[in-house]
Every structure is written in C-alpha cells, then in structure tokens.
C-alpha cells in the first residue's frame, strides 16, 4: 500500500526542515505526499521571517486534494495561527485517519513560528492523534520545565497523554548523551522506551523532528502499529543523519 499523507507545515525553501523535509520523508517510505503550506518562511543564518497562508487557499488546496483521492494520514507541523488551523481542520474533518501533531512553535534558535497557545495545541487531542514533542516542546505544553532525563520524559509523555491523545511520543534528542538515544512512547496500554544509537549531528542539521513525524504518519497510514511505525520512523532519521538522505 502507498499511503496518501497530507502534510501541513511551513515551507522552508532549502528543504532542511518544514514542508519539503516532510515530502522527502514520505516519498522515502513509498508514500504519496500532499503538501499544503500553512506558511512561507525565510530561515537563514541571520534572516528570519514568515508569512501565514490565506485560509481560503488552504481550504481550496485541501478540498481539491481530497477530490483526487483518499487521505490515509495527516501530519501537522508549523501552524502559524488559528485561521489556518480552523481552515485545515474543517477541510479534513470527515477524514477518519491518524493525525500526527508535531508542535513546531519555536525554531532551534528560539524564534516564534506560531501564534497558537499551548492550550490550543492540547485541544488537538483525540483517540487517533499522536503528539510528538521534544523535551522543550513538552515543557511548553505542560507549562513547566521537564527534567532532562528519561524519567522526566516518561512523566511528561504520561501527563500529556492524559489530555486525551491516542499516543504521545516524546523525542529524546535533548536528553544527555549517554551513547544511546531514547524516545518515549506513551499509549493507553503503557509506556515504551524506544532506544537506538545517538549519532553526531552538525549545527546545520535541522528537520529531524519533521522527518520523524512525517515518517510516523506514513507508517500509521499504511496500517502499522504505533510501535512499529515509531521504529520505522526512527530508522529513517538515523539514515538521514548518517547519509544526508532519507
């Protein structure tokens, strides 16, 4: 099966992160990306700006895409504001598929990418919604710092899950380097630590979270379990860090 995955994110022209990184991840796993930019961004070493997409354009693009075929999963990345959130949500309301929500609110340099509040992000919750924050994003959503250890990640994942999400995957990239990288997957059935090698990354390496969430959406759209989809998504990110390619 070649799952058709709707990707909602900011367009970063170099493809290091954002919508083009999402597209690359979906294609690498044999999926069919449907890329809808919720914002246009400019992110260089010194240049930074973004402009939100008109809601009517978001609605039209999603409506047209759904006329051309079924949707098997949806991945949310950068959501600049409430108007874009509501336009996309209305257009996708009848699609009963997995949503993967990557709460991309700040750049790695701390620049704001969204006007949405933490409360609004938590309102995404539903039984077929997976939330994929890193430790900083988890802390922002919870309104408190998250201890930078596996126990802290487990606690954060469990607390976020209690808001009604189908699963929460707290990414371990910000955990201390112990030679391994541990992501924490919380579901109603329990908490799983998914471990793997920690690879060196340069300051220019960006978009690993985008790729992970998009790969996860692809595999869920294919019908894989949460654990299997998570492990496949991690392998894609490892390959990207080793080779620079998905």
Structure overview:
The protein has 246 residues and is an alpha/beta fold. It has 8 helices and 9 strands. The chain has helices at residues 19-28, 55-67, 82-92, 118-122, 135-142, 150-161, 208-221, 226-243; strands at 4-11, 32-43, 48-52, 73-76, 98-101, 129-131, 167-170, 180-187, 190-197. It has a 9-stranded mixed sheet with strand order 3-2-1-4-5-6-7-8-9, sandwiched between helices. It is globular.
Regions with little confidence, pLDDT below 50 for 5+ residues:
none
**Mean pLDDT, nearest integer?**
92
The largest pleated sheet is described as:
9 strands, mixed
Kindly estimate the percentage of residues that lie in beta strands according to DSSP: 15-25%
Which shape, going by the Cα principal axes?
globular
Query: What's the number of extended β-strand segments?
Result: 9
SSE order, as H and E?
EHEEHEHEHEHHEEEHH
Output the radius of gyration: 16 Å
Structural class: alpha/beta
Number of helices: 8
Largest sheet strand order:
3-2-1-4-5-6-7-8-9
Please give the share of residues in helix: 25-40%
Which assembly state applies to the chains in this document? single chain
Quote the distance from N terminus to C terminus.
19 Å
């Amino acid at each position: 099966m070649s799952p058709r995955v709707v990707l909602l994110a900011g367009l970063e022209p170099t493809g290091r992160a954002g919508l083009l990184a999402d597209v690359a991840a979906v294609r690498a796993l044999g999926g069919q990306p449907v890329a809808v930019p919720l914002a246009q961004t400019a992110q260089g070493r010194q240049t930074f700006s973004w402009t939100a997409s008109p809601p009517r354009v978001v609605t039209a693009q999603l409506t047209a895409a759904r006329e051309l075929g079924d949707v098997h999963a949806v991945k949310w990345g950068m959501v600049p504001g409430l108007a874009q959130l509501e336009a996309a949500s209305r257009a996708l309301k009848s699609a009963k598929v997995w949503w993967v929500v990557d709460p991309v609110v700040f750049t790695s340099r701390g620049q704001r990418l969204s006007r949405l509040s933490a409360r609004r992000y938590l309102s995404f919750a539903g039984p077929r919604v997976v939330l994929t924050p890193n430790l900083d994003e988890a802390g922002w959503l919870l309104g408190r710092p998250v201890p930078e250890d596996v126990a802290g990640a487990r606690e954060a994942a469990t607390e976020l899950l209690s808001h009604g999400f189908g699963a929460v995957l707290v990414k371990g990239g910000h955990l201390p380097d112990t030679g391994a990288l541990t992501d924490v997957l919380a579901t109603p059935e329990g908490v799983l630590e998914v471990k793997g090698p920690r690879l060196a990354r340069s300051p220019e390496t960006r978009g690993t979270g985008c790729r992970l969430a998009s790969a996860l959406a692809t595999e869920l759209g294919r019908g894989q379990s949460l654990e299997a989809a998570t492990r496949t998504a991690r392998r894609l990110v490892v390959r990207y860090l080793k080779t620079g390619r998905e």
